[in-house]
TrEMBL record:
It holds the Pfam family Fer2. This is 2Fe-2S iron-sulfur cluster-binding protein. Residues 7-108 form the 2Fe-2S ferredoxin-type domain. It comes from the Bacteria. PROSITE patterns: 2FE2S_FER_2.
């Protein structure tokens, strides 16, 4: 990944740091790096299963779009930038999130 801009996203409670490419969403980055992220829709923004809690670095997160806003409201959470959908979240700097259920994919 020479020359590509990446941003670090720390994911708890698993305790890993993901290198997210500039313009890539967190869900896609996790899959690319070999992690299973809880989802039903596969990253289309409709199931809301991938939601994360932003612990630090909210100022480095992309704005909440209409589809994500609808999802967060459906989860009955405030649209305050601290609950986000991983499949819609792009970062522009270091961010720390919490998401239970993230696992390293088992190599077969």
């Amino acid at each position: 990944m020479d020359g590509e801009v990446t941003h670090r996203v720390a994911v708890g409670p698993l305790g890993v740091e993901l290198e997210v490419l500039d313009g890539e969403d967190l869900f896609t980055a996790a899959q690319r790096l070999g992690y299973r992220w809880p989802t039903v829709c596969g990253g289309k923004g409709t199931c809301r299963t991938c939601f994360v809690q932003v612990e630090e670095g909210a100022e480095n997160c992309s704005p909440v779009g209409p589809l994500e806003r609808e999802g967060i409201e459906a989860l009955r959470r405030p649209v305050d930038g601290l609950t986000r959908l991983a499949c819609r979240l792009r970062v522009e700097g270091p961010v720390t999130v919490t998401k239970r259920g993230v696992r390293r994919r088992v190599q077969e």
